[in-house]
Design a protein that fits this description.
heterotrimer; A alpha/beta; B alpha+beta; C alpha/beta; A: Ubiquitin-like (UB roll); Alpha-Beta Plaits; Rossmann fold; 3 domains; four-stranded parallel beta sheet; 19 helices; B: alpha+beta
Chain lengths: 586, 160, 618
C-alpha cells in the first residue's frame, strides 16, 4: 500500500497531522477535540445537512462543513469560536422549534442525540418558535412506529434503508419546510416494501422511529395467575443487554439476564440457543437431502425474518431456494407448546411464550399465519433487547448488581453452535459442524470454520467434507443479500449453501438492540465487540455441536422422531409465498 | 371490469413512454415529465411501472415527484388556472388576482374543485412581464389583468 | 452532413439574401416582415399574426414578401411587434385585424401607417426601431441576433457569422489558446455570482478525468427575469456553438442543457437547433474534420427554483431531487456523476462566439474595470418600457430606468429597484446613480443576479416586498439544510406577524439575528442569500418596519390587516376610475364629485389606489 500524503493543520491552536483525505471532523476527533454532529453517521450518511458541525476556517467565507470538508495543508480551524457557537445555537434552536419536545415521555429519553445537545448548550427556552409540521403517527405495522413529529430530518434512516440495505422504503418527500421522511404516498410501512429490519431505528438520533412496544401485553400476562409465561432469549441479546445498564459494549451478561427475567416473574426462562440447535438439526438434514438430490441449490437460510420478507417481495421466483425451516425461536415455541406443555401438563392455550429478540422483524414474523400450529401461535409476543431493559428498569432491578443465574431445566441446555447464530456466519458455521460430521460420520478435527467468520459483506468459502467440496457463501445486510440474489437470478451462483442475515453484522446488530449514538458508532467497532463476545461463549461451551445436544437427542427420541421426519416437518418447518411489495397500489 | 380496462390501457401507454428511454436513472425526470404531460398528473400505477422499469424504489420516485412543482399527484381541473406570482406580476398586483381566485373557487393553490372543473396554481414568471400581471387558463395567457377581468373570465366559465 | 466549404458557401450566399435585414438602402423590391415570436409577443397572439400575414400574402399572391418569425426585440411592453425591412418600420401593439392594412397600405401601397407606430418616451411617434430612446443606450452583444434572424433556420444563423467562431477554434486554436482568450476578455459568469469564466474553464480543463461534461444552465428561475429564455428563443445556435467551443476547450465530448419545462418555445427551438446542427455535422463525430467529437442533449427542469444552483442542477440531471451538494468539491472537480463539469449559464455562453470572433481586447474595452462586456436585464414592474435591455456594464440604474425604461408610469415616484431576484436586494433612490457592475451592486446590498430588474413605485410597501421574497424562498427551499428549511420559514412568520400589525421590537431583532446567521450556515446560494431582501429593506427602509411595528401602520395600504383605505376628499375629482375598477362595488359617488369607500364592503385589495390618477386614495 502506498503511504498517504500527510497534511498539517491547526485545529483550535493545536498542531494536527493527518493523512490526506481526512475530514476536519475526523482530524479534530483524532486530536481529542469534539465537534457536535447530528446528521453525520460514519460511512452511511455524510451529507452535511444539519449544519451542527460547522467550523470556522481562517480565510474562508462562510463556515466549513466539518463532516465533509477535507483537510488542507496549513488550514487553521476554529471549532468553537464565538461566531460558530452563536450560529450553532441558532441551528439547534431552529431544530427544536420544529420538534415535539415531550422528552419526559419519549422512548428515547436519556438516549437522544438531540437531547444531549440541548443539555450541552444549556437550552432553557426556544427563541425562534413558530409553526410545527404535524404528522399522524404510523403505528400500523407490527414492528415499527414512525413518529415524524420528532424527526429532525437528518436523513440517517433514509441512507441506512437506501444505501446500506438497498431497500428504499422511506425517503425524503415534499420540499422545503414541508419536507419529511416518509413512504410512497405517505402509506404505512406495513403496506410498502419495508422488511422491518429496523436498521432505521438504529440510525435515528431521536424518538422519531422506534419499535412497536409489546411490554404492556407481557406485563399483563405476568400479572395473570392463569397464564403460564415462558420466556426465551435469543443468542444476541445477552451480549448487548448490559449496554443498556452502562456496561461496556460486548459484555456477556447471560447470568444477569436470566436472573433479571426470573425476578420479573417469568415462570420459566429458556434459551433460544436450544431452538437454534433444532434449526441446525432440521436445516442440516434438509441441506444434506437437497445436496444429494441436487434440489434447488443453493439452499438459503431462513432464520432472519427481515430477509425472508425481502426475498418474498423481491425474488419470489427464487423462493424454492429458501430452507423450509422456521427460525429458532419459532421452532422452540412450537416445541414448548407441544412437547413441553404435554410433559409439564400445561394447557397450551394458557401457555404464553415470550421471545426476547435483538430483532424487530421477529414481531412481524411471530404473527404470520404460517407460524401457527393447531390454531395457536408458536410465539405469543416478541420483545426486543431494548424493551427487556425497560422492563428491568421499571421493576427497579439493579441489573449490574445481580448474581448470575442459570437457564431453567429441562430445556436450558444449548450448544456453542446455537450461541453463534447471532453473528454473521454463525448459522453457516454451526450447520457445517453438524453436516460435516453427519456426512462423514467422523468427528471434526478442527471445529471452527474461520473463513465464514468476520465482517466482510460477502464471505465465500469452499469447505471439504469427506470427498465433497461444498461451496458456501455468507451475506449480511440486505444490500449484500441483493448481490447474491442477483447472482442466483442470473444463474451465475455456484454455491451449495448460502447464509443470509438481514442486518449488517447479523443479529448482534439487529434493529432491536441498544441504540448507540453516531459518535459511538464512529469510534467503537460495536459489531466486532459483540461478535467477539458471542464467539467466546461458543469457545467456552462444553458442547459445541448441535447434534450432540442431549436435550435435543432426548426430544427427538421421545417426541419428534427423526430430524426432517413427519412431525418435525409439521412443527418446525413452514412455507413462504410471494408478497406484493407495494400493497397499497390498487 | 371497466376499471380494469382503463388500467390496462394506462399501463400500456406508460409502457410506450418507457420504451422510448433506456433504463438509466437519469431518465426519471424526463419520463415523469412525459407522463405528467400526457395525463395531467402522475398516476400511482405509472409510478409503480416506472419504479420497476428503472429499478428505483417507489419512495424515491415519490420523493422526486413531490419535489418538483410541475409534477402532480392528482388530476388538474378541466380549466387549469394559473396566476403568475413572479416579481414583475406581483409588483403589478397579481396577488390580488390569486386571492380573488381562491375566494371565488373556494380552493387553495394546488387544489382542484370537487367537481373537477377548476384547479388553481401559481407560476413563477411566464416571461410575459411586458403585459403583467398575467394569468392563464389552460395555457392561454390573459395579460394586463385586473380583478374585474378575471371575474369576467371566471363568470363565463362558471356559467358553463 | 456539410463540409466546411459547403458551410462557408451557405454563409456567403445566405448573407447576400439577408442583406435586407441590416442594410436600409438596398435597392430591392423584396420585403421582409419580421414578427416577434418570443414568449411575450406570443402571449399576445403573435402566432396568429404570422399566420394571417402568410394567408393574405398567399391569397393575394404577393411576390417578394417573406414573413419571418424572430426572437424577442426587447420592447415587450409594446408587443406584438412587427418590423418591415428594409425600411425598418417599427409597428407596435399590432393586432390580427391590422395585418390586412399593413399588407395593403404599407407593403403594397408603400405608405407608413401612423397609428401603428410606436410612441417614444416624449410622446412623439417614431418610425424606426433604432430611433427609439429605448434602443439608443443599448449595446447588443448577447442579443445580437435576437429579432434579426429566424431562430429555426440554421442558414440564417450561419449567414450572420454563425459557426465561424467554431471553425476558428477547431482549425486555428488550441484549447489553451481558447481559454486564454476567454480569460483575457474578462467575461464573468452571468448567472449571478460573477465567477471569471476563463478561470472556470481553466479549472475544469486542469481537472483530472477522461470523461468531462459541459452543461448549460438555462433553469432561469428568478421570477421576473427572462433574458436566458429570450436568447434561447431568439438565437439558440449561438448558445449551442459556444457549448461546442467549451467542450473543445476543456476536453469534453458531451454537453447537457438544462431548461425549464415552463419555456416550451425555448425548448422546442433549442431542440430544432440541435437537430439542424447534427444534420450539418456541427454536432457529432469529427466536427470540421478536426477529430473533435461533441454532442448535446436537452434535460428539462420540472419547476424547482433551487435547480438554478449548479450542484442542484447536476443532481436533477442525474434524476434525483434537486438538492444542492456541499461545496467544495466544486463541479469543476466533481460534477455530473462525479466527473469534472463546466457549468455556465445561457447569457455567458451567448458572449463566447463574439469574443472568439472579435477578440478579447474588443470585449474587455466594453464595461468597467472589474466587470467587462454587457449585461442583459429584464426590466419590469412599474416602468414604462417593460422589456429586455442589454447595456454595457457601468451604465447607471438611472439611465436604465429613466432613459431606456422611460421612467415610472402613472405619474408615480420611484421607490426602489430590485436586482438579483430573491437573492438580491432593494436599491433606494439615493443609489440610482450607481454604475451597474458586480462589485458596486454588492456594495449597496444587492447583487447582479441573473438580470431581473424590477422597478417599484411609491405605492409599494417594502415590508410586504420583503415578505413576498421570503415567501418565494420558503416555497422554493429544497429543505435539505436546517437554516434554510426552518430558518427562512421563521423569518417569513416574523414578517407576517409584522405585516399583520402583531409584531414587536423583539421580532425585529429576531429577524435580524436570523438574517445574519442564515447566510453563514446555509449550504447553497439560495439559503445563503435568502435574507438579502430583508437585510436591504431593513437597511434602506427601516422606518417602514418601525411604522408597522410601533404605529401599526402601513402607509401604502399594501398590508391588508393594517390598511385603512380612504379617499382624500380634497384631491378626488370624481372621475369614477376607482368605482369602475372596484371588484366588490364598495365605492360610491357621483360623477365629478368626491367618492366614498364603504368600509364594510371593502376587501382592501388596493386596486383603487393604483388606478386613481390623482393619487387621492391611500
Amino acid at each position: 500500500m502506498i503511504d498517504k500524503k500527510m497534511i498539517n493543520l491547526k485545529i483550535d491552536n493545536k498542531e494536527v497531522t493527518v493523512p490526506e483525505g481526512t475530514t476536519i471532523l475526523q482530524a479534530a476527533r483524532q486530536a481529542n477535540i469534539d465537534i457536535p454532529t447530528l446528521c453525520f453517521l460514519k460511512e452511511i450518511n455524510e451529507i452535511g445537512d444539519c449544519r451542527m458541525c460547522i467550523t470556522e476556517v481562517e480565510g474562508r467565507k462562510g463556515f466549513a462543513t466539518s463532516c465533509i470538508q477535507k483537510v488542507e495543508e496549513g488550514m487553521i480551524v476554529h471549532t468553537h469560536s464565538p461566531a460558530v457557537i452563536e450560529a450553532r445555537k441558532m441551528i439547534l434552536d431552529l431544530i427544536l422549534s420544529n420538534h415535539q419536545r415531550d422528552c419526559l415521555t419519549c422512548t428515547r429519553n436519556g438516549n437522544c442525540e438531540l437531547q444531549a445537545l440541548a443539555i450541552k448548550f444549556n437550552v432553557t427556552g426556544v427563541r425562534y418558535e413558530g409553526t410545527k409540521n404535524e404528522h399522524k403517527i404510523d403505528d400500523l405495522s407490527p414492528s415499527i412506529v414512525r413518529d415524524f413529529n420528532k424527526c429532525i430530518l437528518c436523513r440517517r434512516c433514509v441512507s441506512s434503508c437506501k444505501k446500506v440495505q438497498k431497500i428504499g422504503a422511506i425517503d425524503i418527500i415534499n420540499r422545503g419546510f414541508s419536507s419529511c421522511v416518509s413512504t410512497v404516498g405517505d402509506n404505512s410501512l406495513n403496506d410498502v416494501n419495508c422488511t422491518f429490519c429496523g436498521q432505521c431505528i438504529e440510525a435515528c438520533p431521536t424518538g422519531a422511529l422506534h419499535e412497536k412496544d409489546s411490554t404492556q401485553i407481557v406485563w399483563e400476562k405476568l400479572k395473570d395467575p392463569e397464564t403460564y409465561v415462558i420466556v426465551q432469549t435469543a443468542p444476541a441479546v445477552r451480549v448487548a443487554l448490559g449496554e443498556e445498564f452502562g456496561m461496556p459494549i460486548g459484555t456477556n451478561v447471560t447470568g444477569k439476564m436470566v436472573a433479571s427475567l426470573k425476578r420479573l416473574g417469568f415462570d420459566k426462562v429458556f434459551d433460544t440457543n436450544t431452538g437454534a440447535d433444532f434449526t441446525i438439526m432440521e436445516e442440516g438434514t434438509e441441506f444434506i437431502k437437497r445436496l444429494q438430490e441436487n434440489d434447488n441449490l443453493p439452499m438459503i437460510t431462513s432464520c432472519s425474518p427481515g430477509w425472508v420478507k425481502y426475498i418474498e417481495m423481491n425474488y419470489p421466483e427464487n423462493l424454492p431456494h429458501l430452507s423450509s425451516c422456521k427460525s429458532p425461536h419459532e421452532m422452540f415455541g412450537a416445541i414448548l407448546k407441544t412437547y413441553y406443555a404435554t410433559k409439564e401438563n400445561i394447557d397450551p392455550h394458557k401457555l404464553f411464550v415470550v421471545s426476547v429478540m435483538p430483532c424487530i422483524a421477529k414481531k412481524y414474523e411471530r404473527q404470520r399465519n404460517e407460524m401457527k400450529n393447531n390454531g395457536l401461535y408458536d410465539v405469543d409476543s416478541v420483545i426486543t433487547t431494548r424493551e427487556l431493559a425497560r422492563m428491568i428498569k421499571q421493576a427497579n432491578i439493579e441489573f449490574v448488581e445481580l448474581e448470575d443465574e442459570k437457564f431453567d431445566n429441562p430445556m436450558g441446555e444449548a450448544t456453542g453452535a446455537g450461541a453463534i447464530f447471532g453473528v454473521t456466519g454463525g448459522v453457516m458455521e454451526a450447520a457445517l459442524r453438524t453436516v460435516s460430521e453427519t456426512l462423514t460420520g467422523k468427528a471434526l478435527e478442527k471445529i471452527e470454520f474461520k473463513n465464514v467468520r468476520g465482517l466482510e459483506g460477502i464471505k465465500k468459502a469452499i469447505v471439504n467434507i469427506g470427498d465433497k467440496q461444498i461451496k458456501v457463501a455468507v451475506a449480511h445486510g440486505l444490500g449484500n443479500a441483493k448481490k447474491i440474489m442477483e447472482e442466483i437470478k442470473q444463474g451465475k451462483a455456484e454455491y451449495h449453501f448460502v447464509e443470509i442475515m438481514a442486518c449488517p453484522g447479523g443479529c448482534i446488530m439487529g434493529g432491536g438492540q441498544p441504540i448507540k449514538s453516531a459518535k459511538i458508532q464512529e469510534t467503537v467497532d460495536i459489531r466486532k465487540k459483540r461478535a467477539e463476545a458471542m464467539y467466546n461463549i461458543d469457545a467456552r461451551s462444553k458442547i459445541r455441536k448441535s447434534h450432540e445436544n442431549p436435550v435435543l437427542q432426548k426430544i427427538y427420541k421421545e417426541f419428534l422422531g427423526k430430524p426432517g421426519g413427519h412431525l418435525a416437518h409439521e412443527l418446525l418447518h413452514t412455507h413462504y409465498e410471494a408478497k406484493e411489495k407495494y400493497r397499497f397500489v390498487k | 371490469m371497466e376499471k380494469n380496462c382503463i388500467e390496462q390501457k394506462l399501463s400500456k401507454e406508460v409502457e410506450e413512454i418507457l420504451n422510448q428511454y433506456t433504463a438509466a436513472k437519469d431518465n426519471l425526470v424526463p419520463i415523469l415529465n412525459d407522463v405528467q404531460v400526457k395525463y395531467g398528473y402522475i398516476p400511482q400505477i405509472a409510478q409503480r411501472q416506472i419504479s420497476e422499469y428503472l429499478n428505483i424504489p417507489m419512495a424515491e420516485i415519490y420523493g422526486v415527484i413531490t419535489f418538483y412543482s410541475r409534477f402532480t399527484l392528482t388530476p388538474k381541473g378541466k380549466y387549469a388556472i394559473s396566476v403568475c406570482l413572479g416579481t414583475a406580476c406581483f409588483v403589478k398586483g397579481s396577488e390580488k388576482l390569486m386571492n380573488r381566485l381562491k375566494e371565488k373557487l373556494n380552493i387553495k393553490e394546488g387544489e382542484t374543485t370537487p367537481d373537477g372543473k377548476f384547479s388553481i396554481d401559481n407560476t413563477r414568471c411566464l416571461g410575459a412581464c411586458g403585459i403583467a400581471p398575467v394569468f392563464t387558463v389552460n395555457g392561454e395567457v390573459y395579460g394586463n389583468a385586473t380583478v374585474k377581468k378575471l371575474d369576467e373570465v371566471l363568470d363565463k366559465l362558471l356559467a358553463e | 452532413m456539410k463540409t466546411l466549404e459547403e458551410i462557408r458557401k451557405i454563409r456567403e450566399e445566405k448573407r447576400k439574401e439577408l442583406n435586407i435585414r441590416i442594410n436600409n438602402n438596398v435597392g430591392t423590391k423584396e420585403k421582409h416582415i419580421l414578427v416577434c415570436h418570443g414568449t411575450g409577443c406570443t402571449s399576445s397572439k403573435s402566432t396568429k399574426i404570422i399566420e394571417t400575414f402568410r394567408k393574405i400574402i398567399e391569397e393575394k399572391d404577393i411576390k417578394n414578401v417573406q414573413v419571418i418569425q424572430t426572437g424577442c426585440f426587447g420592447l415587450c411592453a409594446k408587443g406584438p411587434i412587427v418590423i418591415i425591412r428594409p425600411e425598418d418600420t417599427f409597428y407596435a401593439m399590432v393586432k390580427v385585424e391590422d395585418c390586412k392594412e399593413i399588407i395593403e397600405t404599407h407593403i403594397l401601397g408603400g405608405k407608413t401607417i401612423e397609428r401603428l407606430l410606436c410612441k417614444d418616451i416624449d410622446g412623439t411617434k417614431v418610425n424606426k426601431l433604432d430611433d427609439l430612446t429605448f434602443y439608443k443606450k443599448q449595446k447588443r452583444i448577447a442579443l445580437q441576433n435576437c429579432g434579426k434572424i429566424d431562430p429555426e433556420n440554421i442558414d440564417e444563423y450561419i449567414a450572420f457569422n454563425g459557426y465561424k467562431a467554431l471553425e476558428k477554434v477547431l482549425l486555428e486554436m488550441s484549447p489553451d489558446k481558447v481559454i486564454e482568450e476567454i480569460d483575457k476578455s474578462g467575461l464573468r459568469g452571468r448567472g449571478g455570482a460573477g465567477f471569471p469564466t476563463g478561470k472556470k474553464w481553466a479549472l475544469t480543463k486542469l481537472s483530472e478525468g477522461k470523461q468531462k461534461y459541459v452543461v448549460c444552465n438555462a433553469d432561469e428561475g428568478d421570477p421576473g427575469a427572462f433574458m436566458d429564455r429570450s436568447i434561447l428563443e431568439g438565437d439558440p445556435h449561438c448558445v449551442l456553438e459556444a457549448m461546442i467551443i467549451a467542450g473543445f476547450a476543456i476536453g469534453a465530448n458531451q454537453g447537457y442543457i438544462y431548461v425549464r419545462a415552463e419555456y416550451p418555445i425555448a425548448v422546442e427551438r433549442f431542440k430544432i437547433a440541435i437537430k439542424q446542427a447534427r444534420e450539418y455535422g456541427l454536432l457529432g463525430k469529427n466536427i470540421f474534420e478536426s477529430g473533435f467529437d461533441f454532442d448535446v442533449d436537452v434535460r428539462l427542469g420540472a419547476g424547482a427554483f433551487v435547480c438554478g444552483e449548479e450542484t442542484a442542477l447536476l443532481e436533477s440531471i442525474e434524476g434525483k431531487r434537486g438538492q444542492p451538494r456541499v461545496k467544495p468539491p466544486y463541479p469543476a472537480i466533481a460534477g455530473l456523476w462525479g466527473k469534472p463539469t463546466l457549468i455556465n449559464n445561457v447569457e455567458t455562453y451567448a458572449n463566447i462566439t463574439k469574443i472568439i470572433l472579435n477578440g478579447a481586447e474588443w470585449y474587455s474595452s466594453i464595461g468597467t474595470e472589474t466587470s467587462k462586456g454587457t449585461k442583459v436585464f429584464a426590466l419590469g414592474g412599474n416602468v414604462v418600457n417593460i422589456g429586455l435591455v442589454e447595456v454595457p456594464m457601468g451604465t447607471t440604474l438611472r439611465e436604465i430606468i429613466y432613459d431606456i425604461g422611460g421612467g415610472i408610469p402613472n405619474n408615480r415616484d420611484f421607490k426602489a429597484a430590485q436586482t438579483g431576484g430573491p437573492s438580491g436586494g432593494c436599491i433606494p433612490k439615493e443609489h440610482l446613480d450607481t454604475p451597474i457592475d458586480y462589485e458596486s451592486l454588492k456594495q449597496i446590498g444587492s447583487m447582479m443576479g441573473s438580470g431581473g430588474l424590477i422597478v417599484m413605485d411609491d405605492t409599494k410597501c417594502m415590508v410586504n416586498i420583503a415578505k413576498f421574497y421570503l415567501d418565494f424562498t420558503v416555497d422554493e427551499s429544497c429543505g435539505k439544510c436546517t437554516p434554510c428549511r426552518i430558518g427562512t420559514k421563521r423569518m417569513l412568520e416574523l414578517l407576517e406577524k409584522i405585516c399583520n400589525g402583531e409584531g414587536n421590537m423583539e421580532d425585529l431583532q429576531k429577524l435580524e439575528e436570523l438574517a445574519t446567521n442564515i447566510p453563514k450556515t446555509a449550504i447553497c446560494g439560495l439559503g445563503q442569500s435568502a435574507p438579502n431582501p430583508v437585510l436591504s429593506t431593513l437597511k434602506y427602509f427601516r422606518e417602514e418596519y418601525l411604522e408597522h411595528i410601533k404605529y401599526k401602520e402601513c402607509k401604502t395600504g399594501q398590508c391588508k390587516a393594517l390598511a385603512k383605505i380612504q379617499i382624500d376628499q380634497t384631491k378626488c375629482k370624481g372621475c369614477g376610475m376607482c368605482k369602475r375598477n372596484c371588484p366588490v362595488e364598495a365605492i360610491s359617488g357621483e360623477v365629478a364629485k368626491p367618492h366614498f369607500i364603504n368600509e364594510e364592503k371593502c376587501i382592501k385589495c388596493g386596486t383603487c389606489i393604483s388606478v386613481c390618477p390623482f393619487h387621492a386614495i391611500r
